[in-house]
Amino acid sequence: MTTVSRLPIALALVACLLPTGLAADQDEGPYDLIIRGGRVVDGTGNPWRFADVAIRGDRVAVVGRIPDDTPSARTIDATGLVVAPGFIDIHSHSDRVLFESGAAESKIRQGVTTDILGEHTSGGPNVEPVEETIAGEPVRIASMGDYLSAVERSGIAINVASYAGLGNIWGGVMGASFDRPTESQFQAMEELLDRAMADGALGLSTMIMHPQSLGVTVDDLARLCGVVARHGGIYSSHIRTEGEGVMEAIAEAIAVGELAGVPVEIIHLKIADQSLWGRMDEIVATIDAARARGVDVQANVYPYTRGNNDLVSIIPPWAHEGGRDALLSRLADPEARERMKVDILAGLPGWYNHYLAVGGDWSRMLISAKLTPEHKRFEGKTMDVVLAGLAAGQDPSPDPLDLMFDFLRAEGGSIGTIYAHHTEEDMNLALVQPWCSIGSDGSALAIDGPLRRGHPHPRNFGTFPRVLGHYVRERQLLGLEEAIRKMTSQNAAKAGLLDRGLLRPGAFADVTVFDPETVIDRSTYLEPFQYSEGITHVVVNGTLVLDDGRSTGARPGRALRRER
């Protein structure tokens, strides 16, 4: 297990002041790998420069001019290419799929070398231990430490780090109940979170729009984040609503950080309700004002205008209490259905209603789930097509909401759905803010094998190359150096992974090499199973996992723990 450490300030300053090539004069090889002649973008945001990069073991040994006759086990000619730190995905959902395949194909082909996991639900802690299979053997996972050890032992191509999820902490103590916790229950949550932080969790991550979390207050979160503060961690929040009420939800996340004295990371910042489109400047002003008064609040975005959730998110929160079986019973109950219809069409205070967010337009909901044989024909179709198909032959045509209720019941109460709910202009304004970095909100999937599943969002395959190809090269919305900073050192600093995210001697050798003229995403909403192009080489902890665009099969990834 790797422990994430911070370089002493004095050492870091000395490293920054070393003249170009000094490290090469003092360290003459031999090396395991030299990447020669590329444009080095070191992750700091500084301008690129021509330099060679030498790697020995799992560390960068030299960034500078290296004599041609220097011995090395392998040399890569990076002429015409960019050499950057490996990309750090600050918002990923690969928690479980890495046990199925540690190859992380869709991640390494984007240049990702570290995945940050655990949004709201994390691999640990688990009050009721879960089992995973590693090398054919069952492994019991109860704590965050168990999870990190297990995922590393399973063999992974990329590094992983994780938040502790509020779903594990709150749900672990409260079960499926929506009741307020007693004092003893709250203390049990604090103890559970404290153990997770001691095991190396980065902080606490929440999805406050989750039905059970709607009753969680700012004071509750600040109290839990007091535990996080003692361990030097971060509060990462999928805010209470991204639609109507988004301004208040942003203020709430800021208030938690201000009360608890912890950094705040707002997950995939957006305005996901057409009635509020065009008001991102107000959110930017709110965050800037908080930072001006000393609150460390930042955010991330993915470079798409559609978000992935579940069709069941249209169902009002009260119908979810008691868990999946209780929900399915309500979906079959005529009285409950009529109550749900009223709430869906009119909304409820404090609830992010996905139906109203897209203006009640079924064509802006794309089914992304793997469906049962009965409904397999609807995979990759929009809900207007689904509803028309379900209504075919019925006269009179049923209420679309009744058809949706039946569809959900038949699919077990969960259907992955992509919602077209925010705008390019708002997303672009967020993207260019200096405190806004890049995260995919995706998972480590593949174009074949068991991880080719459902009809996923293209961000699973294309997030980072899309930024480099579309927003840097084609639209010039971002400069190359700034884009790479948002993918590397900024995410490392937020998460406390301060020995990663920069190309400098002594740093871990996580490196991505790409062609700035060809790098681009290929995955689309209709044809998602396509790898990106232009990422040529990826190095994780000194080992090539992508070599000239081909996966090597190596599994050098590690589980990273935040050190207090």
UniProtKB/TrEMBL annotation:
GO molecular function, one term: hydrolase activity, acting on carbon-nitrogen (but not peptide) bonds
SUPFAM superfamilies attached to this UniProt entry: Composite domain of metallo-dependent hydrolases, Metallo-dependent hydrolases
Pfam families: Amidohydro_3 (PF07969)
Signal peptide: 1-23
Record-annotated Amidohydrolase domain positions: 74-232, 448-545
Listed InterPro entries: Amidohydro_3 (IPR013108), Metal-dep_hydrolase_composite (IPR011059), Metal_Hydrolase (IPR032466), Metallo-dep_Hydrolases_sf (IPR050378)
Keywords per UniProt: Signal
Coiled-coil region(s): none
UniProt-listed PANTHER family: COLLAPSIN RESPONSE MEDIATOR PROTEIN, HYDRANTOINASE/DIHYDROPYRIMIDINASE FAMILY MEMBER
Protein's UniProt name: D-aminoacylase
